[in-house]
Amino acid sequence: MKLEDLNVILKVAEFRNITLAAESLDMSKATASAAVKRVERLLGAELFIRTTRHLRLSVVGERYIPTCEQALKMLNQAQQSIKDELDIIDGELRISVPSDLGRNRVLSWLDEFMQFHPKISVRVHISDSNIDFYREPVDIALRYGFPNDANLYGFKICNVPRLVCATQEYLNRNGSPKHPNDLKHHNCLLYQLRDIIYDTWEFMRGNEKVKVKLQSNRTSNDAELVRRWCTHGKGIAIKSSLDMSSDLLNEKIIRLLPEYKPTPTELWLICPSRQTITPAMRLLREHLKIKCDEVYAQLIEKKILDKSDLK
After folding, report:
1. Which domain holds residue 50?
2. Widest distance between CA atoms in the chain
3. The pairing of beta strand 188-193 with beta strand 219-220
4. Within a domain: 200
5. How would DSSP label each residue in 109-134?
6. Contact, 129 vs 193, CB < 8 A?
7. What does the pLDDT read at residue 21?
8. Which element (helix H / strand E) includes 62?
9. What CATH number should be reported for the domain holding residue 293?
């Protein structure tokens, strides 16, 4: 009996759906169905009761699946124990990264990580949307914002200040805002996630809180496109300081209103559960922390950020 077939059986039992199990394992439904049939043929019994709408465990399945889970868990632990003793870091990392940060920072960081650990392979999924680990062929996701799903497990990478940015070309044409309320008279580049357009920006200066409702001729659900518009002088954007770090360091764009702080965010590496964490994931977390620290050290050295921005 193939271990791959047993993994399919466990996923089908988890989802109660062959199609969802196949998507989770990044294989076709036909391949998953064939794996189920091979195991059932070898056992001489059906593990699942199938109808046109539902799939549930049979009596045999209810007895077999828990034993199968425990056996595979013990085997995986034994394999990992040997790898730990031999200091072997290998396997495939299926990671989802945000569009802007992923393309312009994380991809090069992953290249460096793979140079340190040549037995690691990666499969990268680019998306700004929340990841459904039960439907997407992804093991871990790098995302902005604290994970609000109690079923997920996460590693915080760093605090992320958000900045107001524009090119000097845009400011020469339209003037520089002195107060957040001045942004009402500018073209502000907006980000959309699902059906929500983030057209209200909030700022803090000490105890003063300012909320500004904005107008724009450009909105996108792709954070990288918002950055491109900004760097091409199409308007003013609020963006993650990590996303904009290269453009800020190269003086392609300018930070505006530094005394008014937009609502900050955080960068997290998240996975479906604690049980899915591997040594490679832990090493990647440390690598990402180091790379983010390096970026922030450069921004502070050039006085684009202050240490207080990172608190």
Report:
1. 3-86
2. 77
3. parallel
4. yes
5. HHHHHHHHSTTEEEEEEE-SSPP-TT
6. yes
7. 85
8. helix 59-86
9. 3.40.190.10
236 shares its domain with 287? no
Question: What's the structural domain count of the chain?
Answer: 3
DSSP code at position 193: E
Contact 191, 100 (CB under 8 A): no
Are 25 and 116 members of one domain? no
For residue 72, the model assigns a pLDDT of 77
Q: What is the pLDDT of residue 107?
A: 95
Are 21 and 72 in the same domain? yes
* pTM recorded for the entire structure: 0.74
CATH number at residue 53: 1.10.10.10
What span, in angstroms and rounded, lies between the C-alpha atoms of 183 and 177? 6
Are 195 and 249 within one domain?
yes
Do 169 and 125 fall within a single domain?
Answer: no
Query: Minimal CA–CA distance to 16: which of 42, 41, 50, 63?
Result: 50
d(Cα 143, Cα 98) in Å, to the nearest integer?
6
Q: Which residues of the chain have pLDDT under 70?
A: 1, 76-88
**Of 295, 198, 179, which is closest to residue 237 (Cα–Cα)?**
198
Q: Element (H or E) spanning 205, and its range? A: strand 200-205
User: 126 - beta bridge partners?
Assistant: 97
Q: Where are the beta strands (DSSP E) in the chain?
A: 48-50, 55-57, 91-97, 120-126, 140-144, 153-160, 162-166, 188-193, 196-197, 200-205, 208-213, 219-220, 236-240, 254-256, 261-262, 265-271
How many helices (DSSP H) and strands (DSSP E) are in the chain? 10, 16
Token duo for residue 107: 């991809």
Amino acid at 179: H
Query: 167 and 228: one domain?
Result: yes
> What is the CA angle 242-243-247, rounded to 5?
100
245 and 168 together in one domain: yes
